Amino acid sequence: MxxxxxxxxxxxxxxxxxxxxGQEPETTRSVWDGVYTEAQSKRGQALYGExxxxxxxxxxxxxxxxxxxxxxxxxxxxxxxxxxDLFERTRISMPQDxxxxxxxxxxxxxxxxxxxxxxxxxxxxxxDKSLPVLKSIRLVMPKPASSQ
Length: 148
Prior knowledge:
Layout: H1 2-16, E1 29-30, H2 38-51, H3 53-56, H4 71-78, H5 83-93, H6 104-117, H7 131-134, E2 137-138
Parallel strand pairs: 1-2
Helix pairs in contact: 2-6, 5-6
């Protein structure tokens, strides 16, 4: 009987930390916490020039067929969402001429470049490519007072 109770207690404790279907994971960080590195941004910049600039423009300001990836348009379109949301949208639908052709690492690198262009601070660890980690990072615009 004690073993069954102990096993049940361990199961309940383990399940307490697991997100349930339809339940948003708790976000613990924001893009203002330094979620990418300078080296990753530089890789992303090169890839952006090869695969993204033809639609989104060299300065990320957007074009006829693509939205801006910097400034008010980017801020209002992504504010409050998670980095996982932006990552998956990019991974599945970009580039326009070959959707889904970027690797997870390439998407993370391009997002690091976009974050750098938006003046989000760099950190010491690269932007992860794992959705559970990315779901814990929120896009917050403008910069919160607590991050000043």
